[in-house]
Protein 1
Amino acid sequence: MPESQPKILILFAHPSQNRSEINVPLFNVSKTITNVTCVDLYAEYPTYRIDIDIDIDREQQRLIEHDIIVFMFPLYWYSTPSLLKEWQDLVLEYGFAYGSEGNALVGKKFFCALTAGGPESSYRKDGFNHFTIRELLQPLEQMAELTGMDFLAPFALFGAGTANEERRIEQHIQNWKKVLIAIQDNKFNYDVASKLSKMNHNLELIIK
């Protein structure tokens, strides 16, 4: 009997989509892949207020129904945009995502698909930002650890501000499609992906 196709949930958070040259195209192409659910959080909650507008029950049900959880966002001050942080604070609550009875996410896979403005060389100990991108994502890695999810290396594009003029966007999108299709076809090596610092720089190691 063939393996069932994993269900992927992409939670997209970009507060300035009219200026997006990479994240929006990446999100749009994700909609064309089978078994991928794409959620634009800023479209669903355009005027959100804490504890009022975010539909916690609906968001938790989405998590339950999917095997792979992806946060897609531009890196803002070394973290996620504010709505995605509010989403974490409210949706990943005690008794659902963690605690003695909070096991809804155990065994799921989690990773980030992000863009960063600075060049890759700036994301290292002796670079401008002093930390690698995976080190900066450690709060999210620990969130995955606490909730029982397996954290995978990020799918990251650096130098986002010059990617268009340098004609790097199309290849980035094609690599993203390869990742999603490999997951769908059960040809994705999660063990290797969990150990890398960046996913898309090592696709030949990850895709079987």
Note: Residues 169-184 form the longest helix (16 residues).
Protein 2
Amino acid sequence: MTEDTTRRTDWTIVISYYLIWLGSSLLAGKTAYLSSYTMAGLDTIILIAIFWRSKELKRPIDINLLKGIGWGLVAWGAVLLAMLSIKALTNNTVGSSNTGLILHMMRKQWLYTVYIVLVAPLLEEIVFRQCLYRRIDTWMTKHWPGMLPKAQFIAAALVVALFFAAMHGDTSLWEYALISLLLQGLYQRYGDLRVSMAAHLVFNLTTLIVLTCL
């Protein structure tokens, strides 16, 4: 795939995701349920189309996917520890405003669980960790050619983390930003998007299981 083709594909995916998110956000002012279901349905269609055409995501499963699962559990444990520490120090409960709505939607429609656990994390890795990061990294390489590789990675990863956190429209922005940085680091280290996908999927699944059992 040429650079021009990669650039067009990346921006098509990022812009399509943003337009779906924007449309769902506008619709949420009238009905949160219809907004959530619309976004889930359209995101699922995009994800299926991407997997259908991607050779990278169809490669045989290897040991790195198990590492991704392990890192997903580590991320969940780290976030839980941070939340408990903040609660102990400030006597305030730190939570996600988005979680309550998600749990309520899952109880009303079980298929929504598939979206939260499977579709959302896989698509978000493609959009943020791969497409958006690649565009920002390429832009930095072109305009700031003298930047050290590690500094460039950190700068690009931070920008992606800010977008990732902001587009979740949640009160726990720091939590989403930290998760984004960890997942970006996994993709950078292993060079396999499926590793960060596995970590993200396990993080979502573990979080929802624990919250459902509480």
Note: The two ends are 48 Å apart (CA to CA).
